[in-house]
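User: Before I run my own analysis I want an independent prediction to cross-check against. Here's the chain; please return only the structure tokens and, at the end, one sentence I can use as a sanity check.
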Amino acid sequence: MKVVISGYYGYNNVGDEAILKSIITALRNENSNIDIVVLSNDVDYTEKTYNVKAINRWKMVDIYKELRKSDGLISGGGSLLQDVTSNRPVKYYTGIIALAKLAKKPVFIYAQGVGPINNSTNKKITKYFMQKSNYIALRDEDSKNLVKSIGVTKQIEIVPDPVMGFEIENFDSDLCNDYGDSFVSISVREWTKATTDFLGKVAKTCDELVDKGYEVVFLPMHGEHDDKISKQVVQMMKNNAHVFPYDTSIEEKILCIKKSKLMIGMRLHALIFAASVNTPMIGISYDPKIDSFLKLVNQPCIGSVDNNWSSEELLKKTISIINNYDNEKQKLSVESKLLKKSAQKTAKIAIEIFKDK
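Assistant: Structure tokens:
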């Protein structure tokens, strides 16, 4: 069996790379002989890292040729169909689906988070190609509700984000050893649309945590982009804080979160990593996907980047969770175990869909 995988891969975003690795692992667990081709922005990196064939995600003729030789297309996971950043994602990812349909191949929408989609034309395009897909698996109820609201009538399944199935049980690293036993991990990103100084509030909270004896470790999830903004927040602080190396592996980042007392996160996959290793979290939302995931695992959100929450509120919530650490971990464990158990099933369904093509 041969499948083509389309997503936001090869851009040095650890969340999306974790999605890809999780999907590849899950597929190989179901079929050890499966032939996988990934559409990537960095072909060499993708081939070397995941032991797959990769092709340039912009070479449509090459993509069509691979689809012709394949048993089907996996579109996802991640937040592919949205127009908050621009109109390009909807056009690109539905364009790949169009090529698969032109090649007469089945399309599996794999654990995607859909939206926001604001443009009426983009809604029509998304509806059309969702209806053409052979199976739709979305990662949260908000995505399902959006897809239904734009007129998609096909059956939609809710499945966990693939990263919930990521395992690091046998992995170890000494990169976190300098941070001690009581550190809080922080994931921030730039968000120029924010109307409040949310980064200043994060910096003030981190200063208070250091004053109380905790180490603070910023964890860049999107390469140099998050490294730059993390260092910017550290410069805003009066106390010292650490910035985890941005070019470390997925496993090393997850291990850092696992060893921390708490994750305060903006990046969705920093929060998903936390859930996968049972580390309590507090979200800072810039997108509905953050709120959706936090609801799914019953974890708190201090507010959005545009809300008038205070550093004092964030500090109070952080200390409260740390003081009730065992209970909080137990509460999260109940939610995360169910998701981890279900994550593998998505790959099994995909394999069955392609077998019956």
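Sanity check: The CA atoms of residues 136 and 186 lie 33 Å apart.
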